[in-house]
Amino acid sequence: MDDEKPSPFADLLAGSVWLAVAAGIIVAAWKMDRLERLSATIYTAPGLVPGMLGAAIGLMSLVLVGRSLHAGAITSARMPRVILLDHWRLVVSLSFGLLFAIVLIGRGLPFWLAAAIYTAAMVFVFQFPERRRGGQLVRGATIAVTYGVLSGLAIHYLFLDVFLVRLP
User: What does pTM read for this prediction?
Assistant: First the structure.
């Protein structure tokens, strides 16, 4: 296991990215339907928990940025060496997340089906190396599709019937 700490500059970059993500979450949470037509209180608004999580992420990112600046991130600024092949799961996750948001959502597919496709693809891709080594690709695909369909239906039920959130 590599115990090498990230450089202060890498922490500055990561903290800045997380701060931007937190700002996006807070803005999106603020724009969510507050269900006023249902006489809902502010404490039951669907955007409350995501907004609080976004604020927590923002606070932690500010701590990371402050700590990195205190450690000399500006004076020791040099881009960290990143080998994408070593981080293939991160690249796949980001790519699939963007594909889900840009391609699947709002293109006529029901949300539960888009979520099922996304989940099945993620499970299959992340289990692929182990399943291939074990000669279990068909079993892996079956499990991935099962997880996808079950999670898609669970997401549909929870958001529409329990949380009363309209899905695209």
Answer: 0.61
Say yes or no: 116 and 93 in one domain: yes
Query: Domain limits at 164?
Result: 84-168
Are 89 and 126 a contacting pair, CB within 8 Å? yes
- Phi, psi torsion values for 132, nearest 5 degrees: -65, -45
Average pLDDT over residues 87-112: 86
Res 2 pLDDT > 60: no
Whether residues 161 and 96 fall in one domain: yes
Percent of the chain residues topping a pLDDT of 70 = 97
C-alpha 58, offset from chain centre: 15
Six-digit token string for 74: 């500006």
Domain end marker among 62, 81, 100 = 81
